[in-house]
Design goal:
The complex is a heterodimer of chains A (748) and B (159). Chain A has 20 helices and 26 strands. With 748 residues, chain A is α+β, with helices and mostly antiparallel strands. With 159 residues, chain B is of the alpha+beta class. In chain B, a hairpin with a 2-residue loop joins strand 3 (51-54) and strand 4 (57-60). The chains are: A alpha+beta (748), B alpha+beta (159). At the A-B interface, helix 2 and helix 18 of A face helix 1, helix 2, helix 3, helix 4 and helix 5 of B.
């Protein structure tokens, strides 16, 4: 596709203007979840279970309620009963019923006149527990003697005879797996494990909620999706969705972890019980790590068949994932399709099990399931390439999925850019950088879908020709800039003349969150449609003024112009001129679009990392890092690069340092940033990026979802580099220095 | 608990407040003085989002008690732009897209300013180690380091 020609036609798309919210964010003015106050506001604190699994025998709040300044205490008894399915999950996770299911599970909450009083009061709430046996490891939770976390949760898919903790089974594939392995020259298999990690957004969850006795309320909250907050809070509290108006704050990172509720209904329930006074609830970091977010832990078997020339003849995976004590929370259904999505393989078999464990309810984390799957598959591929003395990038290119390939998970790919991404990788100078002693290079590929999702956008023409755009997807990494660029490009006006606002739930139809790499794709596509609709109306106003047919008017460079046989008969009417008199020509002009946009564009990425492993300590240092990924088209390249770099950094953390560490008592041992160690500036080199642009035919500007793919390849890329540098092949993450050192010694 | 009267200087202006001795400087800045630019990401001194200068020294304001600032000077992100003009660091952070969610940005800007005050030409490694106490989960630090380098170069040129 002549992508350069297409790109050359754009005036604004592909440029790097300053983001509209930049000034607020460098001056401290931007308002995040914890940054606002309300008159007569109360502060809340939450009592959490210190046990991984315990029956709640009694909760006595009398001493807390006697404390001066305490206005309300809520327990599960303050919530409606009879919820089912995911609504029950949400309610049960918000506040425990008769059993605490993980260390950190909320048991009660209190509201008081100050944060200090609320914290004092929380300590005075007495909870009597009967400790139950617990299990936190995914394989142990499937074992015959594992304690049952909640019987009767398994759905019909689970084969008979499995432990009640196994709640979901998925299998799919194509071709003849046995024939595929028989056709291979080399068949290898391995078992790979990844620990749970946390999204690690720096902003803890925070909200300010108010709910009156009439069932009407408001909430200010840091979230990736305020319509989800509205629906989930309404379900958990038994109120009507339209009566809860939810306004999103600026959001201090989410990565999937802020697409659901955790403690928001507690603020509302406390407010209702405290006579409708607003209640502010802000989590501590320890609460964030113990009770929100994390992704699943995984145990994965992979088997691959390969010919001597690198052709992959068959692939088989069996994944086991726990997503906490709640059905449906593991990303097993996403991990399996991602396992072999990069490749065109004739014979495939996927099996997966979801398992309950005494851990917090998992939430989405950037490309949920894909990093684990890629760690397993891309590690084994690397081992096989080494065994057959094949170039790992050439093997990936040889087997790469392309347009027309039947994907590993069913659908046939539309236009995709994996081949172009691999070719750009091979051409990059990092591939020829010399390596010294104890240094090694690792490569891996990765994939993520793109999501359409419910989307509603509206656009208003101002009296001076400037344009307001209302979107419902919170801006988590520059989407307001990207959407403004696309709208300005479409309308033929300046970027600065467009202001994009993320608006509250009362202002638009339902919007799904900023998830699935969809904000720039879906809200962008809808905003372009809304702009086209406004253009049509502006052309009609001009036609009426000129007394010609609306079809005889065209929109060029921000103005209506007579076209065809009328060309040149009237001077152009600019957007500013049309806006200035719209009150007398038919009233306000706005464009609107709502849909579940189709035409999503999957994004593939390839990472190359150079690592040095200290043979005396086992510590791995990342020397060089390259991300090459297909963006379809980069609307604002700087923020596309930012997504690539951020995804890589999170993946490096997952590979080298980050893990949930549970003690024998089932309690989380590292619920603080000192011990849950995300990468810091001195851990990383510059992260080189190449934006490949194979436009997505399903988007007016060719956009693919770029936010998530970047976290899929690093786990395997780093492990492959460590193996190359040290000879130590580790199949369990993270590659912490003691583990690497032990593997080096074992290999000597 | 009885509250203590404190007088101090914040961003060049006289300030006073009553504080419970358990409240941190960060609590006081955010909840009493309305300066919410400093953020709480951890409350344990691990993330740097609450970085401020206390008598010119870079500190995590979540690890300083409000009562400790009696008679001292505090500089926060809100005082970084002077007379309506952005500090070169602030400008370069915007131009480099060195922020995504922006939550860690105030703390990183305050920390970077403290670095440049004592080293006007830091190497990439010096910048990375100086900012190692400021967590950013969005950017991978690449654009942050480049923004600090460019701001430093501009400030050297202007000096």
């Amino acid at each position: 596709m002549p992508k350069d020609e297409l790109k050359a036609g754009f005036r604004l798309v592909g440029t790097r203007p300053n983001r509209p919210d930049g000034l607020d964010k460098v001056t401290g003015r931007a308002r995040y979840g914890a940054d606002i106050v309300a008159a007569n506001m109360l502060h809340a604190a939450v009592v959490r279970s210190p046990y991984a699994h315990a029956r709640i025998k009694k909760i006595d709040a009398s001493r807390a309620l006697a404390l001066e300044g305490v206005k309300a205490v809520v327990t599960r008894a303050d919530f409606p009963t009879g919820l089912t399915g995911e609504d029950w999950n949400l309610q049960e996770n918000t506040i425990a019923g008769d059993t605490a299911l993980y260390d950190g599970h909320a048991v009660a909450a209190v509201a008081a006149t100050s944060a200090l009083v609320a914290q004092d009061a929380a300590r005075l709430i007495e909870v009597e527990y009967e400790v139950l046996p617990h299990v936190t490891d995914v394989d142990a939770a499937m074992a015959p003697d594992a304690p049952v976390i909640r019987a009767g949760n398994a759905d019909h898919s689970v084969p008979e005879g499995m432990h009640p903790n196994v709640v979901r089974y998925i299998d799919f594939g194509h071709g003849d797996i046995e024939a595929g392995f028989a056709a291979a020259d080399l068949v290898r298999e391995g078992t790979y494990k990844t620990e749970a990690t946390h999204q690690g957004y720096i902003e803890p969850h925070a909200c300010l909620g108010q709910l009156g006795a009439d069932g009407r309320g408001e909430m200010w909250v840091c979230t990736q999706g305020h319509w989800y907050i509205r629906r989930m809070c309404a379900a958990v509290l038994g109120i009507e969705a339209a009566n809860l108006r939810v306004t999103p704050s600026e959001i201090g990172g989410g990565f999937g972890g802020k697409t659901t509720i955790f403690m928001e209904p507690l603020a509302l329930a406390l407010s209702r019980k405290a006579g409708g006074r607003p209640v502010k609830l802000v989590m501590s970091r320890a609460e964030v790590l113990r009770a929100t977010g994390p992704t699943a832990s995984a145990s994965m078997d992979v088997k691959i068949g390969m010919k001597k020339d690198g052709t992959i003849t068959a692939g088989q995976v069996n994944f086991r994932m726990q997503g906490g004590a709640f059905f449906g929370m593991s990303p097993i259904a996403e991990a399996l399709p991602c396992a072999f999505a990069c490749y065109d393989i004739p014979n495939l078999m996927h099996e997966g099990y979801e398992v309950l464990a005494n851990r917090p309810k998992a939430a989405a984390y950037r490309a949920p399931g894909s990093p684990m799957a890629a760690f397993a598959v891309e590690s084994l591929l690397d081992e096989m390439c080494r065994e057959l003395s094949l170039d790992p990038l050439q093997v990936r290119l040889k087997n790469a999925a392309k347009e027309g390939t039947k994907s590993s998970y069913g659908p046939t790919y539309n236009r995709i850019g994996l081949v172009e991404t691999l070719e750009a990788t091979m051409a990059h100078p990092n591939l020829s950088a010399p390596l010294g002693p104890n240094q090694g290079r690792g490569v891996a590929a990765g994939f993520w879908f793109n999501h359409g999702g419910e989307t509603s956008v509206s656009l208003q023409i101002g009296e001076d020709g400037t344009v307001g755009v209302s979107v419902g997807t919170p801006d988590i990494g520059g989407s307001r800039a990207s959407i403004a660029l696309m709208v300005a490009e479409t309308l033929g006006i300046e970027y600065e003349a467009v202001r994009v606002n993320v608006v509250e739930t009362g202002s638009l139809g339902v919007n799904e969150p900023t998830h699935g790499s969809r904000a720039t794709f879906a809200s962008g596509k809808a905003a372009v449609e809304a702009a086209e609709s406004a253009i049509k109306q502006m052309c009609a106003r001009a036609a009426a003024e000129w007394g010609i047919d609306p079809e005889a008017v065209e929109w060029v460079d921000g103005a209506a112009r007579p076209a065809g046989e009328n060309a040149g008969k009237f001077p152009p009417l600019t957007i500013g001129e049309i806006g200035a008199k719209m009150g007398g020509t038919g009233g306000p002009i706005s464009g609107h679009h709502e849909s579940v946009p189709g035409g999503v564009g999957a994004s593939f990425g390839v990472h190359v990392v150079d690592v040095e492993v200290d043979p005396e300590t086992g510590k791995s240092t990342v020397l060089r890092y390259l991300v090459v990924q297909d963006a379809g088209r980069a609307i604002h390249p700087a923020y596309v690069e930012g997504q690539y770099q951020g995804g890589a950094a999170q993946g490096i953390g997952w590979a080298l340092n980050e893990e949930y560490i549970y003690g024998a008592d089932g309690r989380l041992q590292n619920p603080m940033f000192l011990d849950y160690r995300i990468p810091v500036a001195s851990d990383l080199p510059m992260i080189d990026t190449v934006i490949v642009e194979v436009p997505n035919p399903g988007h007016p500007y060719g956009v693919r979802g770029v936010g998530e793919t970047g976290i899929a390849p690093p786990l395997a890329a780093v492990a492959n580099a460590v193996a190359a540098a040290s000879g130590a092949r580790l199949r369990t993450l993270p590659l912490s220095p003691p583990k690497v050192l032990a593997a080096i010694k074992a290999g000597q | 608990m009885s509250r203590i009267h404190i007088t101090t200087t914040v961003n060049g202006e006289a300030a006073e407040f009553l504080t419970d001795p358990r409240e941190t400087l960060l609590d006081v800045l955010r909840n009493q003085l309305g300066l919410t630019g400093s953020k709480e990401g951890c409350g344990t001194g691990d993330c740097g989002a609450c970085s401020v200068l206390l008598d010119g020294v870079l500190v995590s304001s979540c690890l300083v008690l409000g009562v400790e600032v009696q008679g001292k000077t505090v500089e926060t992100i809100e005082g970084m732009a002077t007379d309506g003009a952005l500090h070169p660091l602030q400008r370069h952070f915007i131009e480099h897209a060195a922020l995504q969610c922006g939550f860690c940005t105030p703390g990183i800007l305050v920390a970077a300013k403290a670095l440049l005050a004592q080293n006007d030409n830091p190497t990439e490694t010096e910048i990375r180690y100086w900012l190692a106490g400021n967590l950013c989960r969005c950017t991978g630090y690449d654009k942050i380091v480049r923004a600090v380098q460019d701001a430093a170069a501009e400030m050297r040129g202007a000096a």
